[in-house]
Inverse folding.
């Protein structure tokens, strides 16, 4: 048996024993505890090897693969899909969503202005831990379609891709970006509104902010069938949030992602292009070229103000 098959069989044994979706670190930890790792499999980053093997198998076999992703970084077995004792959240494979339709089709998540701490004014940065507290279920309201409450603030999550001291920036086509204050400007973000369906058994802690931003990024950069996806999943972390009032009232949680060293940005979407790894220190001199949310990220990265909480 080759190493690829050995890692796949190891993953199947662990997930079948756990009866729940597992991350690659979960698989490696449980395999170690259960003494399931064959002696010929070794290395300091075996969890990354497991992720690569699983991703390659899913890419090659698609629906015939014994594994599937339920969320970014979480793998499960197709053989459990028909098991009535398994929760529904564990049995639904990821589908790349067209986020432009999301607000029309799903109940979007909002927070009432009265729930925001008085200490935060417009454009003040809050810690990741404070954002998580705000998006707990008791603070969230859901609306489907147009609503009339002027104090209801929509919640977004936005991923940015950082490699050392460089930030991945790009441009969205004018027909793909129609928001006031965003159209025609460059961006570094892959953003999505939070919706009621983003709060799953996997994402109670942050209402799915990290997962949703990863799904947005994977959709735009065609990563769902890429062996690079595990590297993005492994590095994603919530770094903070900002309340914006102009030109678009919103609460935005920011997620930092570090890509694998050999990743080259690419998208088949005609609405996305002009990728550039730009030195963060040089972006402030061209700050007016970027949308307001990206401006916030650039300034904080440039000052070293973003800290994980």
């Amino acid at each position: 048996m080759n190493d690829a098959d050995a890692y796949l069989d190891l993953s199947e044994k662990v997930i079948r024993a756990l009866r729940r979706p597992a991350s690659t670190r979960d698989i490696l930890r449980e395999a170690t505890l259960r003494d399931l790792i064959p002696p010929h499999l070794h290395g300091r980053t075996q969890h990354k090897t497991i992720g690569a093997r699983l991703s390659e198998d899913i890419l090659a076999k698609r629906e015939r693969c014994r594994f599937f992703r339920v969320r970014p970084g979480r793998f499960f077995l197709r053989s459990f899909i028909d098991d009535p004792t398994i929760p529904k959240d564990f049995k639904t494979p990821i589908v790349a969503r067209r986020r432009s339709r999301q607000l029309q089709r799903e109940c979007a998540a909002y927070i009432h202005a009265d729930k925001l701490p008085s200490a935060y004014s417009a454009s003040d940065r809050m810690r990741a831990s404070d954002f998580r507290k705000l998006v707990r279920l008791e603070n969230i309201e859901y609306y489907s379609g147009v609503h009339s409450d002027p104090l209801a603030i929509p919640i977004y999550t936005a991923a940015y891709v950082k490699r050392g001291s460089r930030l991945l920036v790009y441009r969205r086509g004018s027909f793909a970006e129609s928001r006031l204050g965003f159209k025609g400007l460059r961006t570094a973000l892959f953003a999505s509104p939070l919706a009621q369906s983003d709060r799953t058994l996997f994402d109670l802690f942050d209402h799915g902010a990290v997962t949703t931003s990863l799904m947005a990024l994977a959709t735009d950069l065609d990563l769902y069938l890429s062996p690079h996806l595990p590297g993005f999943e492994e590095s994603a972390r919530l770094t903070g949030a900002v309340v914006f009032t102009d030109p678009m009232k919103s609460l935005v949680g920011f997620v930092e992602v570090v890509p694998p060293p050999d990743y080259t940005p690419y998208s088949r979407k005609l609405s996305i292009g002009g990728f550039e790894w730009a030195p963060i220190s040089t972006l402030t001199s061209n700050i007016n070229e970027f949308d307001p949310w990206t401006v916030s990220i650039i300034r904080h990265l440039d000052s070293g103000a973003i800290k994980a909480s």
Remarks:
- The longest helix spans residues 3-18.
